[in-house]
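New to this. Explain these tokens.
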Amino acid sequence: MQIEITNFQFVPRIPAEYSVNKLELNWREIAWAYYHKLFDAQTLADFFNVKLPDLQEAKFQKVDQHAVWVIEELLRKQVDNESEVSEERTMKKWLYIVLSFIFENKEDFSDPLQEVEKVYADFGYPEEIKSFVKYMPPPEKQTISSTHSKQEAKERLFSKWQSYLDEQRRIFSEL
């Protein structure tokens, strides 16, 4: 599978602690997200503080250009000590983390389903989430009558979103 992601433009900034608590992430997976601009250098420093709390070199009050250089060098050293990982699996992990974060914090977004649309675009239109992208038509077998309210349609999308999260949680817990 060819992954067509360049830089994330619309994904909300997710705290490092949330990501690490959601899934086990290795340094290559963290580097993938950082270099695709899923998060900034401050969040990268936070990953070091969460995963390697005794590493003094990564503790910065303010992440200026010098700190970015130091943190990126520390990241390169961590990555060099790890085996290659599948880019597809890495992308799926981050897709799950991002969608979980939005779902769990949906009250903080004016339109969480619109956030899903942005994530869908940023991640290269992954097939596995199109069932809860609100502008996508329902599968052929599933018709939505005109008697269904917008609220019912919205609830159906949230239900599909929750099902996706449950399935991904199960898959990643088995790895």
Q: What stands out?
A: The two ends are 20 Å apart (CA to CA). The mean pLDDT is 88.
